[in-house]
């Protein structure tokens, strides 16, 4: 490997780290500013006339502040710092993916920023009018008006020139450096303007506690950290968008190397049997979810927090099955690769990854709910009582949306019949497509879930040991009853045979699917398997691994299928 190649790989690894830190700092910036502006002086609120609140002297007005000042400041930070920063990052986070995705996301974020900025401008004008002051009498206000005007001109220019191209390609290429320079300048001026606005908020009618640092909730420190977080987020965004090696490159489908059919023929493999089977199987599994969700929606069940979480988890699972299985089956049927249908595969990969991560964190929330119910009723009530369960579910949705918008998606490849981050177009560049955030999710969230289930089992076992007699034993919580609260016995009995048959079928299909996938990998990837010349005798190890998989499956079936070996009810259950 050359030194340039090693340097490029290190550069991409640094990009992933800086991007993850930038998103985290942006989130912290919004949280800090929201807390500060909602706590400082009179908090967030829409401007109201003074005659509705009574007459106030100058000192009181200075302490309380004009109603709406904090809302104006918070909306401006949201618009010109966070949403503008994320809009600039859209062409970096998706630099190797379909250009239209980056373009639409870039436009949507800028539209959001413009809407918030105009709302903030209206708020501060209303607030100033209600208090009898004159508008636009400070340097801060004039810079703000000029910034909004420049931002609107820049957006209009970009919309006409690039999103709805009304000029030739050569003209757009010449104007791109100007568009980029104006965008970066607007972002830097916005940071300076927000810092000036903070100075006005903190210094105008400053409370006496600022002098001896004795304010309630240490709000003076929070304000200082708000300014620092805004500056840090600005610098991190600039560090990502300015370096030339981190700019977006044209994808092969944009360069028109081959037609979609040629891409499939060169890099893909048609799998009609796999495609049809996967599509049908996904639809059947989704249908099987319907009676289970319907049962959990019964009034007696739905009022429990655990059922709300399980219903949400079931909905996420159904969405992932309905969205991904038919699409993956259709792509496998046609032998598609990324460049065959870039937009469809990109959006499907974003959805699949988002739903998977949302499902992971929801499963973690569910076991947390069960564990707190067992160990600490106070903690369980604090987190999950009443509508608080919906807040926790909303956080899980936000977690999934982060992976949808701000991380690289998985991409389908029919040659390996799998979803991978690398589109398999360029050789030796797999490390550039690594998704660090998903790796953390798969390691930390999944590990934490498994660990908490172990703790749950231990805690439940210690609880059951305290049961002293048969009469108490009948009333004791069993593992299944506690983890999945009781459903009607007749309903469970009717579903048991179906549940057992589906479970055995899934086991067999998983074994067959593994063997088929292994065979395809050998046929397509490892030429040394044909003449038994692989390094470290990998071909023998692979053959033994496949044989052990088949043997293990057969042994499991031999144990679970015979009727005499099925579990019998205990004396306690018969009572």
TrEMBL record:
Its main location: membrane. SUPFAM superfamilies: Family A G protein-coupled receptor-like. Pfam families: 7TM_GPCR_Srt (PF10321), Cytochrom_B561 (PF03188). Signal peptide: none annotated. Residues 21-238 form the Cytochrome b561 domain. InterPro entries: 7TM_GPCR_serpentine_rcpt_Srt (IPR019425), Cyt_b561/ferric_Rdtase_TM (IPR006593). PROSITE patterns: CYTOCHROME_B561. It is found in: Membrane. Keywords: Electron transport, Membrane, Transmembrane, Transmembrane helix, Transport. One of its GO terms (cellular component) is membrane. The chain crosses the membrane at residues 12-37, 71-92, 104-127, 139-164, 221-242, 273-297, 309-333, 345-368, 389-406, 439-461, 501-520, 540-560. This is Cytochrome b561 domain-containing protein. It comes from Caenorhabditis remanei.
